[in-house]
Amino acid sequence: MANSRLENIGPLLVGDRPLPHSLEAERAVISCLLQDTRNTIDLVFAKLRTEECFYSPAHRTIYNTMSEMRSEMVISQIDPVTVIERIERQGNLEEIGGEDYIAHILNVVPTTANVETYVDCVLEAHILRNLIGACADIAGRCYDAEGNVPELIDAVEQEILNITELQTDTRTVCLRDVIKDAVDYLESLHRRDPSVMGMRTGFADLDNLLTGLKPGELIILAARPSIGKTTLALNMARNIAHDLAERGRAVGVFSMEMGAPQLVLRLVCSEARINMKDVRDGKLTPAQWGVDIIQACDVLSNSPIFIDDMPQISSVELRQKARRMKQNDNVDIIFVDYLQLMRPSGNNRNASREQEVSKMSREIKALAKELEIPIVLLAQLNRQAEQSGGRPKLSHLRESGAIEQDADIVLLLHREREADMAPPDDILKNGVECEIIVAKNRNGETGIRKLTFLPQYTRFENFTGISDDDVPQY
After folding, report:
1. Which of 130, 182, 246, 355 is deepest in the core (most CB within 10 A)?
2. How far apart are CA 409 and CA 222, in angstroms?
3. pLDDT tens digits, residue range 401-425?
4. CA distance 59 to 337
């Protein structure tokens, strides 16, 4: 869209009003790029494709300089000093306000957490300016149409289409272009290549039903409070980490409910098969201290699990941290505990909690696709699941029916009330029978599989009772 068109807008269209823009948002975008280029540059340039997206000439110059450095593949070298040096070499430093202005921009925002909001604000103003320019041009051409109305309408449609593409990330591909990739994928499945077979949770009956957790999938693990969803997620993470360690890959865990020390304590007790209450009461025997705990810690120290226990992170912060984990720590799967403890990004005060949770669910699904890894998202079931007395259903997912739509797999952890009423000695000896209900499986079968819960060890194990393959489909 030619910017010269904007210069010809007459008072009939805009009067004395300035064209839409937000210098504050433009400064904020550049500030985020200067603060954390590696984790913001792809997101920013995916939407703000050229310097013309910026209203301020100074901001255009700075952004264009970063764009040049990005195209030269020197992203790691982009910082305030190198940007200033390049702009000065081009003879434009004084025009943008000198070094002081870039230093000012650097401190405009304290963190990069809301970078996507700033980008959307800049892009929206850019689109509005282009619409105003297009309308001015169209109005003039309407006066000069001289009977070529069909051609004019076609041209107008093309103008508007060009503008709509400013906010559209085109990913259309031709079938013939992806056939080879599909064949390669099928061959990898035939070879049972671990990289495409999906990750095994370590629970045999469940793995046989799911055939592994696959890249790009969003897996919901939901239960009522105190049923054991965090414990099950940790057990899965530990089992998967054991397999990934051989390939130099890792597991990421975001815990908003418990701190890292608490999670590690659970992992140690589970690995050592030691009663957590005995640990807390200081009742461990010398053998448990000197052998079991030491051996468990030795095993876990070689488990590539990275834990982030920042409370109430937003979906934007999760995305930024997950990208770092993927890039820096070779993370191949992420567990998030849990959805309802996350806070929404943005400042939409009119949104209901259900709308907020739905938005976060969609964003986490998009993150799984972007990073090409499975994400296991823990969630709570609503009170109706407990009041109904029976097995939980998809409709019991708390605060959002959209979770069901976004998820590729939904696992509902269930324990009968009678199981908790068994004599304590029986529970210590035999554990508690639990069901893991595969209520949704986009690419496979649904069904119910059993696990054994050992609460004293915060540990789930494969169910050793009679095979339950004949359980009716859920």
Report:
1. 130
2. 11
3. 678 888 999 999 998 766 665 656 6
4. 40
Give residue 91's identity as a one-letter amino acid code. Answer: G
55 preceded by a cis bond (ω within 30 of 0)? no
Q: How many CB atoms sit inside 10 A of residue 351's CB? A: 14
When computed from its CA atoms, the radius of gyration of the chain, rounded to whole angstroms, is 28
Q: Cβ of 314: how many Cβ atoms within 10 Å?
A: 17
Residue 408: DSSP 8-state: S
Distance CA 176, CA 155 (A): 32
Instruction: Give the β-pairing of 250-255 and 305-308.
Output: parallel
Spatial CA neighbour of 35 closest among 312, 320, 307, 309 = 320
pLDDT in tens, 185-218: 788 777 776 666 788 999 999 999 998 899 999 9
SS3 87: helix
Tokens of 456: 């004293």
Neighbouring CB atoms inside 10 A of 141's CB total 15
Q: What residue ranges define each of the domains in the chain, with the CATH number in brackets? A: 4-167 (1.10.860.10), 186-462 (3.40.50.300)
Total H helices, total E strands in the chain:
23, 9
DSSP state of 291: I
Strands of the sheet containing 331-337, edge to edge, are 305-308, 250-255, 331-337, 375-380, 218-223, 409-414, 432-441, 447-454, 459-462
Whole-angstrom distance, CA of residue 447 vs CA of residue 210: 10
pLDDT confidence bin for 7, thresholds 50/70/90: very low
**C-alpha span between 128 and 58 (Å, rounded):** 20
**How would you classify the pairing of strands 375-380 and 218-223?**
parallel
445 is catalytic: no
Per the CB < 8 A criterion, the answer to whether 222 and 412 are in contact is yes
Provide the residue type at 321 as one letter: K
Query: In the numeric block, which tokens belong to residue 256?
Result: 């908003």
- Beta strands 331-337 and 250-255 are parallel
Alpha-carbon dihedral angle through residues 176, 178, 182, 184, given to the nearest 10 degrees: 100
Decide: helix, strand or coil at residue 375.
Answer: strand
pLDDT tens track for 365-414: 988 998 899 999 999 887 776 666 678 888 788 666 678 888 999 999 99
Q: Note the residue count of the chain.
A: 474
- Select which of 88, 99, 124, 257 is catalytic: 257
**Using CA atoms, how far apart are residues 221 and 201, in angstroms rounded to an integer?**
13
